[in-house]
Amino acid sequence: MKGLPLVVLILAVGAVGCDDSPTGPTNLVDITWKLETVARVGSAIITVPNPEQFTVRFETNGTVSVKADCNTCTGRYVLDGSSVSIGNLACTLIACPMPGLDTVFTSALQNARTASIAASKLVMTGSEGTMTFRN
User: SS3 for the chain, per residue?
Assistant: First the structure.
């Protein structure tokens, strides 16, 4: 029984030190991510000419705020390590001057399944393709 406290201490220290990966909720939240590219399955990569018009922000309370061209959206999200799930987004329905990318963007967000951060870039991937963001 003398070795038990030492084993518990080693396990506790090991558990605290295990989560040093760059992905995870604390690295994504409270940052406004600006969309740079969308690589849709079976299509050419779309380079976003005005990233400030296409943003996503994960809040600490589990809500997500989205700017999709001239529309804004809100919804709920769940992050678990590199897995992400964004629920249905409630969006304004303003007719944007250059329609198309706003719906591609919001659909890709709702279908995203993974998120990772490397070199100040957020990469989200799902069934509709891959989106790359900068902060």
Answer: CCCHHHHHHHHHHHHHHCCCCCCCHHHHECCEEEEEEEEECCCCEEECCCHHHEEEEECCCCEEEEEECCEEEEEEEEEECCEEEECCCEECCCCCCCCCHHHHHHHHHHCEEEEEEECCEEEEEECCEEEEEEC
Q: Give all domains of the chain, ordered by start, each with its CATH number.
A: 22-134 (2.40.128.270)
14-66 per-position pLDDT tens digit: 333 333 333 444 588 999 999 999 999 888 999 999 999 999 999 999 999 99
Rounded (10°) CA dihedral 109, 113, 118, 120: 20
CA separation for the pair 101, 87 (Å, rounded): 19
Residues 33, 135: Cα–Cα separation, whole Å:
5
Residue 111: CB atoms within 10 A of its CB come to 15
* 2-17 average pLDDT score: 37
